[in-house]
Specification:
Bound molecules: ligand BV8
Helix content: 25-40%
Low-confidence stretches: none
CATH class of the largest domain: Alpha Beta
Strand content: 15-25%
Structural class: alpha/beta
Number of domains: 2
Distance between the termini: 15 Å
Radius of gyration: 18 Å
CATH superfamily of the largest domain: TPP-binding domain
Shape: elongated
CATH topology of the largest domain: Rossmann fold
Number of strands: 9
Mean pLDDT: 93
Oligomer: single chain
Largest sheet: 6 strands, parallel
């Protein structure tokens, strides 16, 4: 580990939002235990039954709007504001807790729950309310073509041009609260390591990506990440 970094890249997953009260995906009471992932988070499911998928995400919105950032989100903001380096956040999360924590340089590779995209013209619109198959596109005025701007299984990720550049030039790659099972995000640590970054994993347990991390900091991110940022800011 170095005593000084120039470009720090975070990869966050559902675990960073757990202490804000949001369910993660693959633990006992995870989101997908109540729904088969094939039923809600695949492009086939959306094409087969768009309103079922719209409903799944519409129902999630009130809880997401209420959720507040926790000390883990706020620690990243504190690092961005006080450490003399570029600090970027690549997030798999569709919640807006990094934004609520006043972080910047946030890249939602799996999309965002507060956006919908028109499959007819590509227009992206903010959707804090419900989206249904009746929603009319504000750009091309076609209805029934608005899809949640969320990357389903079988769809390409967003922001990958920025992500590639970040992974090639990071000198510190920090993974927080992700199980490391969904690709290509789960492979980002390998790329960062290949290009020379130090790599640290913050989780409650060892993950399938164990091998690629130089350091593992176990525990709740709401406790471990603020401590880590305090040390960096010494
Ligand atoms: C793609 C949107 C090209 C919905 C999501 C075989 C091998 C390799 C890859 C594949 C394969 N077969 C198919 C693929 C590709 C597939 C994939 O990876 N499948 C996996 C399941 C094998 N990937 C794709 O399809 C991707 N696209 O590859 O494009 C392509 C194009 C055409 C055809 C084929 C391929 C698209 C992936 C995006 C899918 N969409 N979400 C939604 O979010 O509602 S993925 C979903 O999983 C979420 O985005 C989520 O963020 C992501 C990862 O989950 P995690 O965030 O890690 O959450 P999880 O619950 O798993 O873990 C939480 C962790 O936190 C745990 O480790 C826990 O211990 C920890 N934790 C909990 N509390 C705390 C904590 N840590 C610290 N503190 C705490 N307090």
């Amino acid at each position: 580990m170095r005593d000084r970094y120039r470009k720090i890249v975070f990869l966050t997953g559902a675990g960073i939002s757990a202490e804000s009260g949001l369910a993660t995906f693959r633990q006992e009471n995870g989101l997908w235990n109540n729904h088969r992932v094939e039923d809600v988070a695949t492009i086939e499911a959306y094409e087969k039954n768009p309103d079922y998928v719209h409903n799944f995400y519409n129902q999630m919105k009130p809880e997401l709007w209420k959720a507040q950032p926790n000390p883990a989100h706020l620690a990243i903001t504190r690092l961005q504001q006080n450490y003399p380096a570029e600090v970027h956040i690549i997030t798999q999360n569709i919640d807006t807790l990094h934004e609520k924590a006043n972080s910047k340089n946030i890249h939602h590779i799996h999309g965002q729950i507060n956006q919908a995209v028109c499959l007819n013209c590509g227009q992206i619109m903010e959707t804090w309310g419900e989206v249904t198959s009746e929603t009319v596109c504000p750009q091309c005025h076609v209805s029934s073509m608005m899809k949640p701007n969320i990357v389903f299984f079988g769809e390409n990720l967003l922001c990958m041009d920025i992500v590639d550049e970040l992974l090639h030039h990071a000198d510190l790659f920090i993974s927080v609260g992700t199980s490391g099972v969904v690709f290509p995000a789960a492979g980002f640590v390998q790329t960062a390591k290949y290009y020379g970054a130090d790599t640290i994993e913050f989780n409650m347990e060892p993950t399938s990506n164990n091998f690629y991390f130089d350091k593992h900091i176990m525990g709740k991110a709401g406790l471990t990440l603020p401590r880590f940022v305090d040390d960096l800011l010494q």
